[in-house]
Amino acid sequence: MAQIDLKDLRHSYKPDPASDADYALKRMDVSWRDGGAYALLGPSGCGKSTLLNIISGLVAPSEGRILFDGADVTDLAPNDRHIAQVFQFPVIYDTMTVYDNLAFPLRNRGVARGKVDQRVREIAEMLELTDKLRSRAAGLGPDDKQKISMGRGLVRDDVNVIMFDEPLTVIDPHLKWKLRSKLKELHQRVKVTMIYVTHDQTEALTFADEVIVMQEGQVVQIGTPVELFERPAHTFVGHFIGSPGMNVLPCELADGAARYRGAIIPLAEAPTRAAGAARTEMGVRPEFVRFAGAADPGAVSVDVVRVADAGRHRIVETRAGEDRIFLLSPEGAEIPEGAAHVAFARERTRLYADGWLASDPAGA
Amino acid sequence: MTMLFESVVKRVGADMHIHETDLELADDGFNVLLGATGAGKTTLIKLMAGLESVTSGRILLHGRDVTKLSPQRRNVSLVHQFFVNYPHMSVFENIASPLRVARVGAAEIKRRVAEAAELMRLGPYLERKPAELSGGQQQRTALARAIVKDSALVLLDEPLANLDYKLREELRDELPRLFADRGAIVVYATSEPSEALLLGGRTATLREGRVTQLGLTSEVYRQPRDLATAQVFSDPPMNVAEIEKAGAQIRLGDGARWRAEGAIAAAPDGRYTMGVRPNFVTPTEDARDLVRIEGRVLVTELSGSESVAHFELPGAVWVSQCHGVHPYEIGESRPFYLDPARCLYFDGAGARVAH
Description:
The structure holds two protein chains of two kinds.
Chain A: E1 4-11, E2 25-32, E3 37-41, H1 48-56, E4 63-68, E5 71-72, E6 83-86, H2 98-108, H3 113-126, H4 142-154, E7 161-165, H5 173-190, E8 194-198, H6 201-207, E9 210-215, E10 218-223, H7 225-230, H8 235-240, E11 247-250, E12 252-254, E13 257-260, E14 263-265, E15 280-284, E16 289-292, E17 300-309, E18 313-320, E19 323-330, E20 338-344, E21 350-353, E22 356-357
Parallel strand pairs in A: 3-8, 3-9, 6-7, 7-8
Antiparallel strand pairs in A: 1-2, 1-4, 4-5, 9-10, 11-15, 12-13, 13-14, 15-21, 16-20, 17-18, 17-20, 18-19, 21-22
Chain B: E1 2-12, E2 15-26, E3 31-34, H1 41-49, E4 56-61, E5 64-65, E6 76-79, H2 91-101, H3 106-119, H4 135-148, E7 153-157, H5 165-179, E8 185-190, H6 193-199, E9 202-207, E10 210-216, H7 217-222, H8 227-232, E11 239-246, E12 249-252, E13 257-259, H9 263-266, E14 270-276, E15 281-282, E16 291-302, E17 306-313, E18 316-323, E19 333-338, E20 344-346
Parallel strand pairs in B: 3-8, 3-9, 6-7, 7-8
Antiparallel strand pairs in B: 1-2, 1-4, 4-5, 9-10, 11-12, 11-14, 12-13, 14-20, 15-19, 16-17, 16-19, 17-18
Helix pairs in contact in B: 2-3, 2-4, 3-4
């Protein structure tokens, strides 16, 4: 287990990168503490797989160093880095028993028989595979197969980090719940550093202590799930996280408040980084928009155009001119038809200047 | 226009793939097939398309028996999970291909491709090859090809499963609008309950080759006919437990008890299975008349917008889901509050106890 430091890392697949645009991975400086649970989150092509391959040693970075517990591993081959990887499609030997599959990484490294047996049984117990140890892997369901894949990552006690590359993408929702909570439980027990790569916000937010959000090769924000939800550093994070994402509305700044379509929207945090911005926007999540009276302070007039049933709440889509404003309405609450007014929770409305959050938390 | 399944059975050797099924699918709104992998969604779609033949029973499209018709003669469009485009053809030619096969005139092809491309927001990419497009654009190309044909039957087999989360959200939002008023019967297979809900229309829940219920999506979700339907249509999984009903009282394990209301009150005394969705089991007593239960917290998931706790009851692991950020300690025993008005009850055969 190890602390991982990425120092001034940068990568380009081109031989002579000239501009920033030539870099698949823009300069980054990141520290992951020993035993933490991290997620790399971003859309396809954001650079998360490049980063994963650099850490595992499949790709040598153009610039920068990778340190495991302070030791430079940048030039080490993948095998010498002591990393376990779990992929989207379970990598297991169908003809072997579950036991032999789990034992494989240990036997491969010449671990003594007694020790192999002890570790395999321990891991099988945690994964609830004990009663299947003698079964052939071929006959198992997709969730058990992915459990074996995870188990093969967990069975070695000499790994610096376990990396998961979209491990639940091909798993059905019900099994996803089970495997996700299993993985979380395992992390609580074994405390090995884990890095989880995904485009799925739910998986990232529910698994990780800290999420690294990437876009176009750049780290846009590093934060706890709650921080990413409550204070997105960039409108991209606001949009990408949350379902639907944050409402981002063009506005003007007027005496520390936002002016949007004639309404004055008070802000709990005074924007300190908005001076000279070419573009100012306010961001507020659908969770913090509510229907209001026409005379309420900060009320904006909208048209309700659509209501979608999400089960435990409904997603209401409204239009204010060209802008779409979403809000969540609890199951059973009344939703007006046609013309209505909405208001934004003051404590939850943020100002963005040229895409970036323009304020700090009160008292910071 | 409707599609009818009359006593359709699909058996392969000794394996029952689809048990005897009667279905009626309409052209107003999506017909969602919801079920886990292997429940029979793709088999049903192949039967509809004519890619597989029924073992017994009949399929009627618009009153016409199409059971024995080949796929080519059924006027269907099919979009798979893995976007299939012709790699050597431009986006324009990809979309135009079914029209070329049908020998539509050049001017008409141009007009219809332009229309479909506009709907799928592919206008600027018509001259590109599929490989030069993002995953979302490739899948939109496949969808445009399905639209351009003006098929009577459009079959979408998990069309968004391989796309990024955000893109999926966007297309899921657009799809029902794109197909509205086209007069086609649209069938959409998914393994995700949340997707079924948001698509609206009607939903057929499937488990192990059986359609357990078909109805308006929100009705199937809120009024499941049986335990299988309730479980298939729940994400996170529905919390279930055995309860004892005696007189006017419901008893869960040794601890919690509450008053039997509604249909269960009139049901005979005895053991039943109860089901309750995780959002009706909360860590705070934020409404009146909630029932307190004790559980030990195993795992928590805090996403910012909501807090999920997996907790252990005697004999079961349940999930609680609430809005906002709720602090939990792993391993702590603490109260949760369940809403008895939201509990569903099922008899020994799994049928819901309802009026």
